[in-house]
């Protein structure tokens, strides 16, 4: 079978995976209606499983058509650094010493503001933490924000449409909130070296505009939620004074987190630091909550599947990106990001020879602005889904609900990049 045929098969599998993502909530409903096969339907309803499942299917099809060695060679040729990094940074960022420290700081700041503490806490979770992603990377910011907001906003007592609005704001704000530096947002990282974009350039061209949109998005969402917010303990659910984490333990956790972020593109180093973290957490388990290993592994599996499936979509994506004028490129990137990872989209743009500075800006602006529309649009989104889905009906997040919740924040982000 020719390479072109394999490309068409890969594109078809990618489309099936997208459709599966949008129908995941239906599988959860089938699980409740059919107890006999509920296990299978629950598995198919796990959004984090979708792309990994179809990536395995694609590799099997490739093995049956072009040969097993070629299929294995393709799978091994993919770069899995990002899935590994997201896995490691999720687990460390969600550990009790890190989360307790951040939430305690947020609690102190919230009590100093002139508004009700629950309102201030929610606003800081939707605004300040996503902007913090420019320093600690977007996956870490998503993990911390999701765990902070889960008991306050993403709970059964809050109406579903407001939870989807908050989720859309969180995803969009994390996607654009990492653009104040050149290393924290995956779509920026893909082009920063090639186009010589440093952190000073990112802040002056993207960062301040993103910050303005983040603040407005968070304010709108917090106002909409004002009658449904409750105050949660600063250290998380069930936190008491007797469970306070020693400063030395917290310092070690933050040091290891900083090391993982600093060496985010060197898996041998950051995985070594992660293993050191696991050992330290075991040694001081009295100061730990259960690590989110399952959730982080599922997110890593999702992203690895996206790497495998997305790696064979360049043949149709790159001609589209290459043929568009700057404004059309912005709108095209905004839309294409919803059906493919925004980092993959900007990477394809970095391969275009002679692309203008205006087109570079429009491509990245559209890619980050559209990063909240779907679970696959931005690498940290699966982490948010894994940590927040229990607060939604049927224990799963509907793709259409997320899309509708993110539309308003996306339009605002797009307007900020276009007109400010």
Task: Write a concise keyword list for the protein shown above.
single chain; 420 residues; mainly alpha; 2 domains; 21 helices
Structural summary, described in words:
Helix 10 (160-177) crosses helix 21 (399-419) and helix 18 packs antiparallel against helix 19 (357-369). The protein is an all-alpha fold. Residues 233-242 have low confidence and may be disordered. The protein has two domains: 3-79, no CATH class; 82-419, no CATH class. It is built from 21 helices and no strands. It is globular and about 60 Å long.
Shape: globular
Structural category is mainly alpha
Largest sheet: none
Instruction: Determine the N-to-C terminus distance.
Output: 51 Å
Strand percentage, roughly? Answer: under 5%
**Count of helical segments?**
21
Following the backbone from N to C, one meets helices and strands in this order, namely HHHHHHHHHHHHHHHHHHHHH
User: Oligomeric state of the chains?
Assistant: single chain
What percentage of residues falls in helices of 4 or more residues?
over 70%
Structural domain count: 2
Mean pLDDT: 87
- What are the segments in which pLDDT stays under 50 over at least 5 consecutive residues? 233-242
* Radius of gyration, whole Å: 21 Å
Number of strands: 0
Give a short overview:
This protein has 420 residues and is mainly α.
Helix/strand layout:
Elements: H1 3-22, H2 24-33, H3 38-44, H4 47-65, H5 68-77, H6 81-93, H7 96-112, H8 117-136, H9 138-149, H10 160-177, H11 186-192, H12 199-224, H13 247-262, H14 267-283, H15 293-310, H16 314-323, H17 326-336, H18 342-350, H19 357-369, H20 381-388, H21 399-419
Helix pairs in contact: 1-4, 2-3, 4-5, 4-15, 6-9, 6-13, 6-14, 6-15, 7-8, 8-9, 8-10, 8-12, 9-10, 9-20, 10-12, 10-21, 11-18, 12-21, 13-14, 15-20, 17-19, 18-19, 19-21
């Amino acid at each position: 079978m020719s390479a072109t045929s394999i490309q068409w098969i890969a594109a078809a599998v990618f489309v099936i995976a997208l459709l599966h993502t949008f129908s995941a909530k239906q599988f959860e409903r089938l699980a409740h209606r059919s107890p006999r096969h509920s296990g299978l339907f629950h598995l198919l309803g796990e959004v984090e499983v979708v792309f990994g499942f179809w990536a395995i299917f694609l590799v099997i099809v490739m093995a049956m058509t072009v040969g097993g060695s070629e299929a294995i060679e393709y799978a091994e040729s993919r770069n899995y650094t990002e899935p590994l990094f997201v896995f490691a940074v999720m687990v460390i960022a969600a550990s009790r010493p890190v989360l307790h420290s951040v939430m305690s700081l947020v609690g102190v700041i919230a009590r100093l503001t002139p508004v009700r503490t629950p309102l201030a806490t929610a606003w800081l979770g939707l605004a300040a933490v996503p902007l913090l992603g420019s320093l600690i990377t977007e996956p870490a910011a998503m993990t911390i924000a999701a765990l902070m907001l889960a008991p306050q906003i993403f709970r059964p007592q809050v109406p579903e449409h407001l939870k989807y609005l908050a989720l859309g704001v969180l995803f969009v704000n994390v996607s654009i909130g990492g653009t104040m530096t050149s290393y924290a947002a995956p779509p920026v990282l893909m082009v920063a070296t090639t186009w010589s974009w440093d952190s000073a350039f990112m802040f002056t061209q993207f960062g301040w505009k993103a910050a303005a949109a983040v603040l407005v998005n968070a304010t709108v969402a917090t106002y909409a939620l004002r009658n449904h917010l409750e105050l949660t303990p600063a250290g998380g659910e069930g936190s008491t004074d007797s469970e306070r984490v020693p400063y030395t333990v917290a310092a070690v956790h933050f040091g290891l987190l900083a090391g993982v972020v600093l060496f985010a593109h060197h898996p041998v180093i950051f995985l070594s630091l992660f293993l050191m973290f696991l050992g330290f957490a075991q040694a001081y388990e009295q100061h730990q909550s259960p690590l989110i290993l399952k959730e982080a592994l599922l997110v890593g599996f999702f992203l690895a599947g996206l790497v495998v499936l997305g790696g064979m979509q360049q043949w149709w994506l790159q001609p589209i990106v290459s043929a568009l004028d700057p404004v059309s490129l912005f709108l095209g990137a905004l839309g294409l990001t919803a059906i493919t990872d925004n980092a993959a989209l900007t990477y394809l743009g970095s391969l275009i020879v002679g692309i203008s500075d205006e087109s570079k800006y429009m491509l990245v602006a559209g890619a980050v602005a559209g990063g909240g529309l779907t679970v696959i649009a931005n690498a940290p989104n699966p982490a948010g889904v894994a940590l927040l889905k229990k607060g939604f009906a049927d224990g799963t997040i509907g793709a259409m609900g997320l899309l509708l919740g993110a539309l308003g924040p996306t339009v605002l982000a797009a307007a900020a990049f276009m007109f400010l």
